[in-house]
Design a protein that fits this description.
Layout: H1 2-14, E1 20-21, E2 25-26, H2 42-49, E3 54-57, E4 60-63, H3 68-87, E5 91-95, E6 114-118, E7 135-139, H4 146-158, E8 163-168, E9 173-177, E10 182-185, E11 188-191, E12 195-201, H5 202-205
Parallel strand pairs: 7-8
Antiparallel strand pairs: 1-2, 3-4, 5-6, 6-7, 8-9, 9-10, 11-12
Helix pairs in contact: 1-4
C-alpha cells in the first residue's frame, strides 16, 4: 500500500508547470519563474526563497503554503516540544529546517514542519542539516494530497528517521510511522523511544477554532 502511495505521490509531483514559447520553442530555464524551473540548485533556491519555507524536488522549487489550521497545529506541537526539551535537555526541536538528505545531489532538499534531533545527532550540523531527524513531523494542509504526505513520511524513514508523525487536522488524528509499524493515534501522542515522559492529547493539537473561548472584556 505504501509503495502505491509513494508512486502516485511522485507521479503527481513529477511534471512542473512550465510556460511554452511557441515562437522560439521552450523558454530557457533562466527565463522561467523560480517555481517553474527544473534545474535549481540548493544555493540558488535558498537565495530565491528570501526566507520563505520551500522544498527542492529534483531541481524544482515548491513553496510550502500553510493554512491557519496547519500553523495552529505546528505552533502547539512546537510549543509543547520546546517546553519538554527545556526541562529535559536531550535534544532540540527545530521548525522548518532545510534537510540536505542527498549528499550526491545539489537539487534536492526537504523541509519538515518540525524536526527533532537528539543531542548526539546534532554534532557536525552547525552549518547544514545532512541527516534525517530522529523525529520528523509533517502537518497536512487542506489542499495537500494524503498520498504525498504519506510518501514524505516514508522518505524520512528511509533516510534514517526513527519516528514520523503525520498530522491531519481535517481528520483530527495523527499517523505514527516507525520502520516496523504504521498506526493511527486519536487519543494521546507519545514517543517513549525518543522522548520519555512526553505526552500531549491529540485533541489539544487540533484546538481550532476556539468557538467557546470568551471574548476579551466579556
Amino acid at each position: 500500500m505504501a509503495t502505491v502511495m509513494e508512486q502516485e505521490a511522485l507521479t503527481a509531483d513529477a511534471t512542473p508547470s512550465a510556460r511554452t514559447y511557441y515562437r522560439e520553442g521552450p523558454a530557457p530555464e533562466e527565463d522561467l519563474r523560480p517555481e517553474e524551473r527544473t534545474d535549481l540548485t540548493i544555493e540558488e533556491a535558498e537565495a530565491l526563497a528570501q526566507g520563505h519555507s520551500f522544498e527542492l524536488i529534483d531541481g524544482r522549487m515548491v513553496f510550502k503554503m500553510a493554512d491557519p489550521k496547519h500553523s495552529s497545529c505546528q505552533g502547539i506541537l512546537y510549543g509543547e516540544l520546546y517546553v519538554y526539551l527545556k526541562k529535559n535537555p536531550i535534544g532540540k526541536a527545530l521548525p522548518e529546517l532545510n534537510l540536505r538528505l542527498w549528499p550526491e545531489s545539489k537539487h534536492n532538499l526537504r523541509t519538515p514542519d518540525i524536526a527533532v534531533f537528539l543531542n548526539e545527532n546534532l554534532r557536525g550540523m552547525e552549518k547544514h542539516a545532512t541527516r534525517a531527524p530522529d523525529l520528523a513531523i509533517e502537518i497536512a494542509s487542506d489542499d495537500d494530497k494524503a498520498l504525498a504526505v504519506f510518501a514524505k513520511g516514508r522518505l524520512y524513514l528511509e533516510k534514517g528517521s526513527r519516528v514520523v508523525w503525520l498530522v491531519f487536522p481535517s481528520e483530527k488524528r495523527v499517523m505514527i510511522m516507525t520502520p516496523t509499524e504504521w498506526r493511527w493515534e486519536s487519543d494521546t501522542l507519545t514517543c517513549p523511544e525518543l522522548l520519555p515522559g512526553f505526552s500531549i492529547k491529540v485533541e489539544q493539537i487540533f484546538s481550532w477554532p476556539l468557538e467557546e473561548a470568551p471574548h476579551p472584556g466579556e
